[in-house]
């Protein structure tokens, strides 16, 4: 009797569901989450935790909903912040006041072999840490997918960097006429200059258009080509009466429009 009970206990159930040797095909056949609606579901999630929990459900989900701009459309903007005293970095969710920590591939080096210049469109723009060898090497790292894009050696010094949605990188020194730009697939940086006496004080991509703050307070649209930099000014010259009060002027974005931000020094 005992033998019979043991035999029954180890026997398979009477109705065993048919299993597939390929787990991805089994998930794709599931009626609860048709594959064609998964990107739409992911694009409506407002929490990074929910998004990555959905991707972690199975390998098929990870393939169908990559961490791209479209499927992250409903995510709130995140700010890159530096943490002290660890000198590490994290993303800060403004409305939830929550930190999202991450590990960088070079984070185990002391001191770090790279430092961050900019965070935009999901990418960190990083440069090799300053040392005796120059020029620095720039690399784009997508924080959510891990994709790395290496750029050519930078030919001239710079202090500011901006990034467009199609991953065009622009470098410049405020108060100088020289601008460097590089696009995906370029073997070299292109170095162009504004016509004298124009100098570039700030630059910003807004909705695919490159804007520049020129000669202090003149706003212009910038067209970059392989050998030239063309400025199309917006509005007339500012006189002393129309000049806003402030000491530091920078370009910003609000509602897909370019705006001027001013810091008043006291």
Biggest sheet strand order reads 4-5-6-7
C-alpha Rg (nearest Å): 26 Å
- In total, the number of strands is 17
**Residue fraction in strands:** 35-45%
Give the N-terminus to C-terminus distance in angstroms: 93 Å
> What is the domain total for the residues?
3
Oligomer: single chain
Class based on secondary structure composition and strand pairing: mainly beta
The dominant shape is globular
Report the uncertain regions. 1-31
Largest sheet: 4 strands, antiparallel
Helix content: 10-25%
Please work out how many helical segments DSSP would assign.
5
Protein name: KIB1-4 beta-propeller domain-containing protein
Domain KIB1-4 beta-propeller: 92-229
Pfam families: Beta-prop_KIB1-4 (PF03478)
Biased composition (Low complexity): 12-26
Helix and strand topology:
Elements lengths: L1 H9 L12 H6 L9 H6 L4 H8 L3 H6 L13 E6 L4 E6 L4 E4 L12 E7 L2 E6 L9 E5 L5 E3 L9 E4 L5 E4 L5 E5 L7 E4 L6 E7 L2 E6 L3 E7 L4 E6 L13 E7 L2 E7 L3
């Amino acid at each position: 009797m005992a033998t019979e009970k043991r035999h029954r206990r180890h026997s398979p159930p009477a109705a065993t569901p048919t299993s597939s040797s390929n787990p991805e095909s089994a998930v794709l056949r599931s009626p609860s989450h048709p594959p064609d609606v998964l990107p739409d579901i992911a694009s409506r999630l407002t929490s990074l935790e929910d998004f990555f929990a959905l991707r972690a459900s199975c390998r098929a989900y990870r393939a169908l909903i990559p961490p791209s701009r479209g499927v992250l459309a409903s995510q709130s903007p995140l700010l890159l912040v530096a943490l002290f005293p660890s000198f590490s970095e994290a993303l800060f969710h403004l409305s939830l006041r929550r930190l999202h920590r991450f590990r960088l591939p070079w984070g185990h080096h002391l001191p770090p072999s790279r430092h961050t210049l900019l965070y935009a469109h999901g990418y960190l723009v990083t440069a090799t840490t300053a040392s005796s060898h120059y020029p620095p090497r720039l690399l784009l790292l997508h924080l959510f997918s891990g994709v790395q894009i290496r750029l050519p050696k930078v030919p001239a010094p710079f202090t500011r960097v901006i990034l467009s949605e199609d991953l065009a990188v622009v470098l410049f020194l405020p108060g100088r006429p020289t601008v460097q730009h590089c696009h995906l697939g370029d073997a070299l940086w292109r170095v162009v200059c504004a016509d004298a006496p124009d100098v570039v004080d700030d630059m910003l991509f807004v909705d695919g258009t490159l804007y520049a703050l020129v000669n202090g307070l003149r706003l212009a649209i910038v067209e970059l080509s392989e050998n030239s930099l063309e400025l199309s000014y917006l509005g007339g010259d500012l006189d002393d009466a129309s000049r806003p009060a402030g000491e530091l002027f920078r370009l910003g974005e609000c509602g897909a429009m370019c705006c001027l931000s001013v810091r008043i020094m006291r």
